[in-house]
Design brief:
single chain; 137 residues; alpha+beta; Sufe protein. Chain: A; binds FE2/S2 (inorganic) cluster; ISCU; 2 iron, 2 sulfur cluster binding; iron ion binding; metal-binding; 2Fe-2S
Length: 137
């Protein structure tokens, strides 16, 4: 009934070989950091974007997730998805898209929500660093 096999394959692939794990060196220019937690389970996700000021495009992404396999897979997927996007495009990604792509079951929806929250929070952080006076999001 449910795509059990593809759930396992895609999630496990991202879980076992997560892409873009790590963080940028402290103080690196053009970086925005999102740090979010899931109240339901206490899992934490940190997602960082590196943005080219001139084009407003995300040139690099890194994450560290302390959480379940679905949260790790969601953040790994998110890093691949937003690379090369403008901030505006990246800010529109919905957790439902990630959940669908990874075939997450309903109880794991909040894991993908972490990834949506994290990218939004990273964009907000980048914008606030860039123009502190006009930080309107
Ligand atoms: Fe914490 Fe998902 S409940 S890992
Ligand atoms: Fe809580 Fe996955 S982030 S169970």
């Amino acid at each position: 009934p449910f795509g059990v096999r593809s759930y396992h394959e895609k999630v496990i692939d991202h879980y076992e070989r997560p892409r873009n794990v790590g963080s940028f060196p402290k103080g690196e220019a053009g970086v925005g950091t999102g740090l979010v937690g899931a109240p339901a389970c206490g899992d934490v996700m940190k997602l960082q974007i590196k943005v080219d000021d001139a084009t407003g495009k995300i040139t690099d992404v890194k994450f560290k997730t302390f959480g379940c396999g679905s949260a790790i897979a969601s953040s790994s997927f998110m890093t691949e998805r937003v690379r090369g996007m403008t901030l505006e495009e990246a800010g529109k990604i919905k957790n439902t898209e990630i959940a669908k792509e990874l075939c997450l079951p309903p109880v794991k929806l909040h894991c993908s929500m972490l990834a949506e929250d994290a990218i939004k929070s990273a964009i907000k952080d980048y914008n606030s660093r860039r123009k502190p006076a006009a930080a309107t999001v």
